[in-house]
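Continuing the series of single-chain predictions for the mutant panel. This is the parent chain; the variants come on the following pages.
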Amino acid sequence: MLPRAGPRRASARRFFDRVAAEVAAVPGADTAARQDVLRTLVSPDLVALFEERLPAAARRLAEDREGLTAAVGLYHMVLEGVVLLAGQNAMLDTLDRLSARLPGVRRGVELVLRDERWHIGFGTRLVRAAGLGRDEVEALLALGQAAARAWGALVSPGAADRAVRMHRSRLRALDVKFF
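Parent structure:
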């Protein structure tokens, strides 16, 4: 089960669950059952990012405020800025190829992407203020590159590459020379 989320995140989760149930016809009587089905279709690395690494970062943060930069880097820059961005852009690419236009699904994904951009910018500003060193920035870059690959064949290489290029660009804004 994914960690609790604020109202906007909960709204996005409800939207994507409704798309899964009503548009993609993912079997399951409720969100948890559909997540169980979808878990079998994605790589273990992707599941681990959300169900192991993110909750572990949240636990560390609750115990010790020193983990704030790492938690923000993981959540806002890697999960939202790479993984979710790649998945949502891949979904838009797929919608472009369908014979049925599905304007409600497109609009919903676009609204979620707009919200994600705010979160990614917020995370970038917080990480920049933390004054990370070269090694920490390189670790964030490597984590983002690995996270983009976690989608496997579910996201086109082009969508994953776009997300990594944007991640690299955001990391450049940290003013640390790492490449």
